[in-house]
C-alpha cells in the first residue's frame, strides 16, 4: 500500500510517498535526509516536539516557556503537558537549562531566561 | 539634538539583524528604538518551534531565535532603547521619540524602518452581530496565553487559516480547550502545509474552506457563531448557514505592515504589499531611509526577515559611509500570475539582485520568468507554488547591466 505524507521538518513541506509495511518501507519524494527519517518515524512511531508555558511560583508577572529537547511520542503529548504543569518551578531559570532530564524519552528545557 | 549615524526603528528580528549588519560594515554609532519593555518583537510570544532552520541551521523557538540576535546586539554594545515609541520621522531623518527620558529628538544620517506588522481586526472584517467578550485576534490570544498565562476560552472557533490561527488551534487544544473548527474564506489555506499537518490534522481539528463567520451571537460573552459557505466571489451562499456553539472566536485574517510613520514621512508606498516601495538595497524613495522585515512585506519565515534586514543594514552602512553608486534604475513589476515583487525598483550597479515575489493563486508546475522587453533575465521552474510561500529569482548583474526596459515578472503554468 502506498501513502503520502506532508513532511513537517521544514517549511518546504515535501510530499513524501511511503510504500510497504513497518519493517520494509520504501520512501521517496523527500529533499533531505531528515525528510526520509521523518517519513519512516511517522509510519512506525510518530513523534512531535512540544512547547508550552508554565507558571513560576516566585514570579507573578511572567510565564516560563519550555520545550521538549527532542520529539516526544505523539500518544504521550497530553500526559507531557499535564506533567510539566503539575510541577512547581522557581526562578532564576536560564534559557537552555534542563528542567526534567527525561520525560517520555526527552529532556524538558527552558526556552527563556527568567532572572 | 542628539545625533546618530543610524537609527533603527523597532527591536524585533528585523531591527536587531539590521543593526548588527550595519555595525559589522564598520558603522559604530547605531541605536535601536523599541516601544516594548524588552527587545525581540513578536518572537517573544511565539513559544512554538520551527524558527531558524534556514538561517541558523537549527530548529529554535521564538524566544530562542530572538535571544541569538539579542546576544549579537549586546556583544557589539549597540544600545537598545526600550519603552521608546517613535512618533514621527521626517524626510530629513529627524526622529521624534517618547521614552522614559521624556520627548527626545534624534538626528540620524540614515534610518532603518523595522516596525513589523499588526493583525486585521474584527472592525476591518465587518462581521455583523453583537459585541460580546471572547473575540480576539489570534496574536492577542497568543500573547495572553504565552506571556501572561491566561487561557482565553474553552470552546473556540478560529476564522482564518493563516499560520498564527493554526498555531493557536494547537496551542489551545494542548492547553485543554476544544477547537471546534477553523474556517477559511478562500478555497485554500494561507498557512504553511506543515502547520496544517502538525496543528490541525494531529488533533483532528476540522478545516472548512470557502467558509466564513457571518453572525456573532451572545450578549455579555460570546455564545456562538453562524458560519456560511461562500461562492467564488467570496459572498455567503444563503441556505448554507450553520450555528457553532463557542465561547471564543479567534481572528487570523491577515497581517498589515505598520506604516503610519512611513506614510507621514511622505514615503512612496506599494498598494499591494502595504509597505514602502524600495530598491534592492531596501532603500525607500527618500534617500537614507531603508525598510526591512514585516513593515516592508509580510514574511512567512523569520529566517527571511533576518536575510532582508542584513541587506538593509549593510546598505544603510554603505550609505552613511558615502559609497553608494547607482547609474540608472529599472522598475520591477508584477505580471500575470504574480501578486507583488520586492524590490519594486533596481538601481543598476553591476551586482546580482534577488527579487522576492508571491504568486496570486496556488498553482501546479509553473515557470517563473523575469523579462526586460523581449530579453529573459532569469527563469526558474517549481513543481508547485502558493501565495503563502515566498519565491525568489536571482537576476544576474551582467544581464541587468544591458537591460533598458522595465522588468516584468511572470508565472506561466506548465
Account of the 3D structure:
The complex is a heterodimer of chains A (115) and B (414). By secondary structure, chain A is of the alpha+beta class. Helices cover 19% and strands 42% of the residues of chain A. Chain A has helices at residues 33-44, 77-86, and strands at 2-6, 15-21, 24-28, 47-48, 51-56, 59-68, 72-73, 98-103, 106-110. In chain A, a hairpin with a 2-residue loop joins strand 8 and strand 9. In chain A, 31% of the residues are buried. Chain B is globular. In chain B, strand 24 and strand 25 form a beta hairpin. The longest helix of chain B has 19 residues, at 302-320. Helices cover 21% and strands 33% of the residues of chain B. Chain B is an alpha/beta fold and 414 residues long. In chain B, strands 1, 2, 5, 6, 7, 8 and 19 form a seven-stranded mixed beta sheet that branches. A five-stranded parallel beta sheet of chain B has the order 10-17-11-12-13. A five-stranded mixed beta sheet of chain B has the order 22-20-27-24-25, with no helix packed on it. Chain B has nine helices and 27 strands. Classes of the chains: A alpha+beta (115), B alpha/beta (414). The interface between A and B is medium-sized, with 26 and 29 residues.
